[in-house]
Amino acid sequence: MTKVPSGDEVNSLKRTSVQEVFQFIENECDDIMNKIPADYTKLGDYALPTEQPETGRANRLAVLALKARTALYAASELFNPEQKRICGRKQLKLIRRLLIRVPNMGIS
After folding, report:
1. How do residues 9-30 score in pLDDT, each as one tens digit?
2. pLDDT confidence of residue 88
3. How remote is the C-alpha of 27 from its chain's centroid?
4. Tens of pLDDT along 90-102?
5. How far is it, in rounded angstroms, from Cα 9 to Cα 68?
6. pTM of this prediction?
7. By the 8 A CB rule, do 37 and 60 touch?
8. Nearest residue to 71 (alpha-carbon basis) of 88, 86, 89, 91
9. Residue 50 CB coordination number (10 Å)
């Protein structure tokens, strides 16, 4: 759902499959990956006028982590009992990208 539904629309909504929800999350992550700041401590003129850098906000690393976790859940037996979606290259590439970036972000 990407818009606010009317009362009639709410009452007639069909249930979305879990795999469609996972795909929606992955697509949204792809869409915002390069639109969200990689690091809020280097906003320059866009930063709030405080002495403390903005931390605790979702950044590119958080988006990548959400996408990797979503891909793993989508391929898991819990949400994919028929194994139609195999945990393979896609998920491993996402996890690798995540693990490569973590040390560069000062996270241990």
Report:
1. 888 888 888 889 999 999 999 9
2. 66
3. 9
4. 777 777 777 777 6
5. 32
6. 0.70
7. yes
8. 91
9. 7
